[in-house]
Amino acid sequence: MNHIDVSPNFGGLIYSVNNFVANLIGIAEPVFTASVLGDDSNVSGWRIVFFASAGLSVLSNLIYVIWGTAERQPWTVHIP
């Protein structure tokens, strides 16, 4: 819902770009997992995959907590 708070007129466009990036990460994750694990799926390889995924989640959340806002942006067009 933050997309609509930031820009009610461009909320759909912002959401679609955000969803596109999220899907790219979803596509890249199996490739990353396969490259880390290789032919043997041992516990240490799965730890790397888990901590990389957890680190990406924590980093993206931290970026939003620091710089995220729900205020309407000045670049949005105001239509009465």
TrEMBL record:
Compartments in which it is found: Membrane
InterPro entries, per the entry: MFS_Na/Anion_cotransporter (IPR050382), MFS_trans_sf (IPR036259)
Keywords noted in UniProt: Membrane, Transmembrane, Transmembrane helix
Species of provenance: Eumeta variegata
Originating gene: Picot
Membrane topology: Multi-pass membrane protein
Bilayer-crossing regions: 20-37, 49-67
Broad class of the protein's primary localization: membrane
Protein name, per record: Inorganic phosphate cotransporter
GO molecular function term, any single one: transmembrane transporter activity
One of the record's GO cellular component terms: membrane
Single Gene Ontology BP annotation: monoatomic anion transport
